[in-house]
Amino acid sequence: MTRDDLIELTLLPATHDIGGFKVHRTLPHRERTMVGPFLFFDQMGPAHLPPGEGMDVRPHPHINLATVTYLFDGAIGHRDSLGTQTVIRPGAVNLMTAGRGIVHSERSPEEARRDGPALSGIQTWLALPDGQEEIDPAFEHVPAADLPVIEGDGVTARVIMGDLWGKRAPTTTYAGTIYADIALAPGASVPIDAAADERAIYLVEGEATLEGVALEPQRLYVLRPGIAATLRSTSGARAMLAGGDAFATPRHVWWNFVSSSRERIQEAKRAWMAREFPVVPGDEIEWIPIPGQPKTVSYP
């Protein structure tokens, strides 16, 4: 099988330094907006911030999407306008459903700041299906112990969302979704089946091949539909498998807003500037302004 037979697109990341750690973003991309419901794919770190410092993502809004946070290392404190307050740690998943609108913040926990927090993980956004974009906002934390793990022959694969390898994650899905964290020991391999409409492999670290085709870290490889393949590693690797149902209706992305309607995004922009979104209890003072607006502002 040739590379072109197997891989439809290779998406290179846009890499940004956002204050002590790097973020590699492969979706959205000028060549591809979505893979299944996934329309945003960020690798954070790995990084170790200096003692006393931490990640501080101030309150900001979302509409018409669900965010998924999954960590390899470190911890992130999450607060949102529903009153949720939780800390996510490696192997667990945070699913935040924005629906008609939610506001949240993400900050390093105080206890992690003393020695300098580690940070490594993946953040993704999932489009909500037609007819469900304006559902009620919600938050769901699934502990690592509740996610199924497939182990054997040097493979450890955690199913984060959907059905894979005969196991199903308890994480809520709104459209058909597959999402997994795959760790391969040296010499190990794992099958990547062809059941989902759209699939992509992201090599987080290490060395791996897909049907003999060499993969590079921090690239999102969009696979051709209907082709089963085997992911192998000679020296060890970590990879993410993501995908699901193809969406018939395009999604528009502007800043933190996603919608099938450009007019809905404009309305969300207006509402955030007018301070009409709800506040985050316990994190009411700071907020992130609309791009292009003054940077030093606070809630009334």
What's the SSE blueprint?
Layout: H1 3-6, E1 7-11, E2 14-17, E3 22-27, E4 38-48, E5 56-62, E6 65-74, E7 76-80, E8 85-88, E9 93-97, E10 102-107, H2 110-113, E11 118-127, E12 138-142, E13 149-152, E14 155-161, E15 163-164, E16 167-168, E17 177-184, E18 189-192, E19 198-206, E20 208-210, E21 213-215, E22 220-223, E23 229-232, E24 237-244, E25 252-254, E26 257-259, H3 262-273
Structural class category: mainly beta
Reading side by side through the largest sheet, how are the strands ordered? 1-22-19-24-17-14-13
Order of helices and strands: HEEEEEEEEEEHEEEEEEEEEEEEEEEEH
Biggest sheet architecture: 7 strands, antiparallel
Mean pLDDT over the residues: 94
Radius of gyration: 19 Å
Gross morphology is globular
Separation, N- and C-terminal Cα atoms: 61 Å
Q: Helix segment count? A: 3
Structure description:
The radius of gyration is 19 Å and the shape is globular. The strands form six sheets. It has a seven-stranded antiparallel β-sheet. A seven-stranded antiparallel β-sheet has the order 2-3-4-11-6-9-12, with no helix packed on it. The termini are far apart. The protein has helices at 3-6, 110-113, 262-273; strands at residues 7-11, 14-17, 22-27, 38-48, 56-62, 65-74, 76-80, 85-88, 93-97, 102-107, 118-127, 138-142, 149-152, 155-161, 163-164, 167-168, 177-184, 189-192, 198-206, 208-210, 213-215, 220-223, 229-232, 237-244, 252-254, 257-259. Helix content is 7%, strand content 47%. It has three helices and 26 strands. The model is unreliable at 294-300 (pLDDT under 50). Strand 20 (208-210) and strand 21 form a beta hairpin. It has 300 residues and is mainly beta.
